[in-house]
Amino acid sequence: MSDVKGVDTKPETPAAAPAPAPAPAEAKAPEAKPAAPAKPAEAPKPAPAKPAEAAKPAPAPAPAPAPAAPAGPAPGTVGVRAPAAKSPEQNIHITISTKVVAMVMTTLVSIVLILGGTQVALFPNHPWLNWAITLLWVVGITNAFNLLDNMDGLSGGTTTVAATFFLLLAAIGGQFLVGALAAALIGACIGFLRYNLNPATIFMGDTGSLFLGFLLAALAIKLRFPSNVPWITWLVPVCVLALPIFDTTLVFISRLRRGKNPLTTPGKDHLSHRLVALGLTRREAVLVCYLIGGACGLVAVYIAQSHFPDGYVVAALLVLVALCTIVWLERRCPGGQPRDD
């Protein structure tokens, strides 16, 4: 290589590689406050395993229910304690008291009738005797219908039959007011029988039967028969009401024979009960009583048109049949129970 002035003839050294650029200064991160120690994560509680259902035992028999206590008054109120159950002796005492009160009231009403001029006129010269017969008639017929009310529809139906014959007899005699009262009684009883026949849904009770008996007794006294004499016509109302008279007589004789008080001793010794004991149903027994009442009414219509002695002969035959029937019933069904032969 030729020399050149002013030029360094030293051999060229290779240029040093450029130094790498200094790394930028690291920014100081802000000093973080020491975090609170983290709570260790709670392990999930295992769900409690359901115990295996045991076999259900057979249900035990339910205990007998205890008798319900009587409901007392509500708190803060004043109530009346329910009456305790009455013993048979108390029930008999109440029944006797009711009968006694009914007879006393009937006697008082009979006296009112006598004072009002409604009385028997069989003995014109002996008014006190007419008063006694009137009192006996009204009290007897009134209580006879009370005794007759021993089966569904019996007392109401018998009243309807008797009032029908009273209406007929009043029309024959021209007594329109008496006939109007009898017609009203018939209509009331027919409307009541719609619900009182067996099986009954409503019942008459002592008040109803006593009222019916009293009305029929008063109607019988008010009947007049201008075409006949009183010594014949007094048999007419007796025959119309022969069924309740017969039933009461049967009960009195039967209870007296058994040594019991006929007024205070209840029993199934009435005519209707004996017919049931002989094999009839209750409704059939009531219908038979209706037929007997109708037959007696026809006899009464005949007597009202008859003269002496025909009227008394027919009435005597009716009494004879009644007595024979009482004897037969007492032998066949003593005390109302069928006799085991």
Describe this structure in words.
- By secondary structure, the chain is mainly α.
- The chain has one domain.
- 55% of the residues lie in helices and 0% in strands.
- The chain contains 11 helices and no strands.
- The longest helix has 28 residues.
- The chain is globular and about 55 Å long.
- The N terminus is likely disordered.
Layout of helices and strands, plus pairs?
Elements: H1 88-115, H2 127-148, H3 154-173, H4 176-196, H5 205-222, H6 230-233, H7 235-240, H8 242-257, H9 271-277, H10 282-305, H11 310-332
Strand percent estimate? under 5%
Helix/strand-derived class? mainly alpha
Overall structural domain count: 1
H-E string: HHHHHHHHHHH
Low-confidence stretches: 1-38, 46-55, 69-94
Q: Mind telling me the C-alpha Rg?
A: 54 Å
Classify the helix fraction into a percent range: 55-70%
Number of helices: 11
Envelope shape: globular
Average pLDDT value?
Answer: 79
Number of strands: 0
Distance between the termini: 181 Å
In this structure, how is the largest beta sheet organized? none
